[in-house]
Structures are given as structure tokens and as C-alpha cells.
Design goal:
Blueprint (H helix, E strand, L loop, with lengths): L7 H7 L15 H40 L2 H20 L2 H6 L2 H23 L2 E4 L11 E7 L9 E6 L1 E4 L2 E4 L1 E6 L8 H18 L1
Parallel strand pairs: 2-6
Antiparallel strand pairs: 1-4, 3-6, 4-5
Helix pairs in contact: 3-5
Length: 208
């Protein structure tokens, strides 16, 4: 009777062989690693410098805006004083000026002088008056209050000024309140008339 028990040598042959210890992972090139790290550090440095430059420019812009526009709220209050002076002077008609005594004339001249000095002070601080009479209506600096039928001027022209406007720097401190002309009827474009003539001329041969 045969014995089926495997021999020790056969059992040993069936066991998996350990991996060859001589095989190892490739070693990275130190120069390549150093170059990659240097490139990464350079990129970070450039990004940081760009962020710092953007911050510097933004800070300068904010400081400049604060210097120019920081008085906007105060300037609007001062404009009310200028408006009241102008209303007082407009209320004094030419006849009243001519018949006024010396004291009244001196008072009027004093108010006019004060108004001029106030406007000069505003201009020194970058605040300019908008004089839109006769100009084309600009919704960026004008506020239309009503329309005035007037065929003698082009449509959309400022024909009346209820309240002058002011600019501070490049911004609108207060829009001018104006009346805008409606103008006369619009003339049909010449191109349309020519087109109609051409159509009529092209239809005549067909009718014959």
C-alpha cells in the first residue's frame, strides 16, 4: 500500500519564495529635487510680491479717495448755504437795486461777495459748479424735472435750471435740476426718402 503523505522537500517547494531583497526603488536625483523646490519657492515669492503690490495700490487709492471725497457729507450741507444766498440775491430785482439806498446796496454787495468767496472755497476743495444751461441733457449729471415745448432748440437741450449741480472730483455731488426741451417734430431720415423714391421708380416700369 502506497503512502500519499508528501515529502518534506515537496512541502518546502510549494511555499512562496521571498522577494528578492536586491531589488530597490529608484533614488530621486538630488539636483532635480532641489530645482523643483527652488521653482516652487520662486512661485510663492512672486505671488507674495504681487499681493503686496496690489495691497499697496489699493491702499493708495483708498487714501486718495478719502482725501478727495471725505468731505462729501459736509460739502452737501454747505451747498444749502450757497443756494440760500443765490435765492436771496435773485429775489432782489433790478428795480429794487437801483432804488435802494446806500445801506441796502452795501448789504447786497456783501452777500454777493460772500457767495463768491464761498464758491472759491468749494473750488479749492475740488468742488465745481455745474452750469448746464444750453447744454445737451446728460442723465449722469442732470436730473430732468419737466419738459418744455420749444421748437427753436434741439430736443433734449437744457433750457431751464431750477437748481445748479456740483461735482466733487470726478463724482457727482449733487445733480442739477433742469427743464429739458421737447423740440420740434423730428424730420424723417433722408435714407428713408431716397428708399421711397427708389421704390416708386422701380415700380413705374412694371406698371407700363
Amino acid at each position: 500500500m502506497m503512502n500519499d503523505t508528501p515529502r518534506p522537500e515537496a512541502a518546502n517547494d510549494a511555499e512562496p519564495k521571498p522577494a528578492d531583497s536586491a531589488v530597490s526603488e529608484p533614488v530621486a536625483d538630488p539636483l532635480a529635487v532641489a530645482q523643483q523646490e527652488a521653482a516652487s519657492l520662486k512661485d510663492k515669492l512672486l505671488r507674495t510680491l504681487a499681493d503686496m503690490e496690489n495691497l499697496r495700490r489699493r491702499t493708495e487709492r483708498e487714501v486718495a479717495d478719502a482725501r478727495v471725497y471725505g468731505i462729501s457729507s459736509f460739502a452737501r450741507d454747505v451747498l444749502g448755504v450757497a443756494d440760500n444766498m443765490r435765492r436771496a440775491l435773485d429775489a432782489v430785482g433790478p428795480e429794487l437795486r437801483s432804488n435802494a439806498d446806500a445801506a441796502i446796496k452795501a448789504l447786497i454787495e456783501g452777500v454777493e461777495l460772500t457767495e463768491r468767496e464761498l464758491l472759491k472755497s468749494l473750488e479749492k476743495n475740488g468742488i465745481r459748479k455745474i452750469e448746464p444751461l444750453g447744454e445737451k441733457f446728460d442723465p449722469n449729471i442732470h436730473q430732468a424735472m419737466y419738459e418744455v415745448p420749444d421748437a427753436s432748440v434741439p430736443a433734449g437741450s437744457v433750457v431751464q435750471v431750477m437748481q445748479p449741480g456740483y461735482l466733487i472730483g470726478e463724482r457727482v455731488l449733487r445733480p442739477a435740476l433742469v427743464g429739458v426741451s421737447k423740440g420740434g417734430p423730428k424730420v424723417a431720415p433722408a435714407a428713408n426718402n431716397n428708399a421711397g423714391d427708389n421704390v416708386g421708380a422701380s415700380q413705374e416700369p412694371g406698371g407700363k
